[in-house]
Design a protein that fits this description.
169 residues; alpha+beta; 5-stranded mixed sheet; 4-stranded antiparallel sheet; 29% strand; globular
Length: 169
């Protein structure tokens, strides 16, 4: 049974830190909400299915440790993160996935709902260059079952992201 996705524009009132940040910056965006299924094996694939959007346009937000510095990687849900490419993109030598509890404490979001926007602590961010192939992409809006659609250039500007080929597959 397909889940219904609801679209809405946000005013910032009662939103997540991500949607509040987008509204405060005056960036055009659309919020998509859907009923999250805790049994689904992939948060990102679930979002793509619920919204009826290609998994190449839905990007997951991952937190990695690059030479001791927490770094955000934003890659399509249809692939995986290339940790070596992520390290190289920020001038580092070695990257590993961050401890999930540390990622949650640092960003202020729960796993499966980590947004690259409105994080508690501003982290270096790398956006996979494939994002530029789409007029809009979707990223977590700050909680499971909530995605925000926006132009990749706006996401890169707001997060001060480096664009690099960090996704595989």
């Amino acid at each position: 049974m397909a889940k219904k996705s609801k679209k809405q524009q946000t005013s910032g009132a009662g939103g997540t830190p991500a949607t509040v940040a987008l509204t405060a910056a005056g960036v055009g965006h659309t919020v998509h909400s859907y009923e999250h299924d805790p049994a689904h094996p992939s948060f990102g694939e679930e979002a793509a299915e619920a919204m009826g959007v290609s998994p190449d346009r839905v990007f997951k937000t991952l937190v990695a440790d690059v030479d001791g510095t927490l770094t955000v990687a934003v890659v399509p849900v249809s692939g995986t993160l290339d940790l070596k490419a992520l390290a190289a993109a920020v001038g580092g030598k070695r990257a590993a996935m961050a401890d999930p509890a540390l990622a949650e404490r640092t960003t202020g979001y729960v796993r499966g709902g980590i947004s690259p926007l409105g994080q508690r602590k501003k982290l270096p961010t790398v956006l996979d260059e494939s994002a530029g192939a789409h007029p809009t992409i979707c990223v977590s809006a700050g909680r499971r079952g909530l995605e925000v659609e926006l132009a990749p250039a706006d996401l890169a500007t707001l997060t001060k992201a480096v664009l690099a080929p960090i996704g595989r597959g």
